[in-house]
Amino acid sequence: MPAAGEIVHAERVWSEPAGGGAVVARQLALLAGRCELFTALGEDDLGRAAARRLAELGIDVHVRWGGATRRAWTHVDGDGERTITVLGDKLLARGPLPLDGYDLAFFVSGDDASLSSARAARFLAATVRELPTLRRAGVELDLLVSSSTDPGEQYDGSLGVRHLAVTRGAEGGTLDGSPYDPGPAPRVVDAYGAGDSFGAALAFALARGDAPSDAVALAARAGAAVVAGAGPYEAQLACGS
Prior knowledge:
Layout: H1 20-32, E1 36-41, H2 45-56, E2 60-65, E3 71-76, E4 82-87, E5 104-107, H3 112-118, E6 123-127, H4 131-137, E7 141-147, E8 161-167, E9 173-175, E10 178-180, H5 194-207, H6 212-227
Parallel strand pairs: 1-2, 5-6, 6-7, 7-8
Antiparallel strand pairs: 3-4, 8-9, 9-10
């Protein structure tokens, strides 16, 4: 980040629809061949452009339209670490949602009703970012992904969780209390999206029946792949990679 009074010049500038839901959906689409994203976008030019771009990325997008699309500036420093400035309020996909019969649902944000309807899926994963909603809905989770390094992603043990992943970035982390190997460290270009891609790949592998050790190995590869590209989508892990 610029120091006080400093003027810095970006080496590269681009824009993408992103956020945890979009990153998770794109990673799942690459691994599973298809993913549906239930989201909310503003009824404005930015929202419509975001919906078109998400479709181009291979995601089946279901949009609740209304309000103004939230924007964010993501600043990436010379070491590839990202710092995010958010502009505007979060828009939520409000439920219930038609998720009965799905093999996997991954809850990133929404209201209590959308989360409760997601429990109709055979496997339900979530990030800890929406801990108050997870507590209120009171549904049991097959996977919860948290972080020991992000103050906004700490977990206090207050939920019914079958599998718990706690990430520590390049240092690896734990799955159900057992450490996992992060694998060879790639050259870091941009860390944005690595954690969400890790969580998506872990949920995908566990939902299809992989052993936890195999599932977390795939997830670590997915997280490491992302940091080698600019933005969340350029280097995401594809099926067979």
